[in-house]
Amino acid sequence: MQIQPYLFFDGRCDEALEFYRSVLGAEVTLLMRFKDSPEPPQCTPPAGTEDKVMHASFRIGESVILASDGRCGGQPSFQGFSLTLTVADENEADRLFAALAEGGQVQMPLAKTFFSPRFGMVIDRFGVCWMVLVECREPA
């Protein structure tokens, strides 16, 4: 059994996939557009959204995340969860945190905590909350 997050970017999925590809090294493993569906849509997407992403799958490290443009309204809303990036060292944490923060909003700056040599929280430009954490091998 697996649990996979499914993110609805409300019309900004292509942009998000490209951002995660450039910042996190994400690999898109599947991408289907609304126009590619062999069946009529169960709910009618807005006109002009045929090229929007109906379903995508992308890999970051060993994790798979699913995504879609959803109803293509242009206002993605992500609340009540965070995606956590666990990295091996402080330099990688600094680099990824800065990249995710570009155009986003820092919620908690990267800092040493009792559980990690580096931990911070940032909301990226799409509204997805990320926690960046350096894996602690010894007490911090």
TrEMBL record:
UniProt signal peptide: none
Q: Which CDD domains match?
A: PhnB_like (cd06588)
Q: Where is the PhnB-like domain?
A: 2-132
Domain of life assignment: Bacteria
Checking SUPFAM superfamilies in the record gives: Glyoxalase/Bleomycin resistance protein/Dihydroxybiphenyl dioxygenase
Instruction: Spell out the protein name for this chain.
Output: VOC family protein
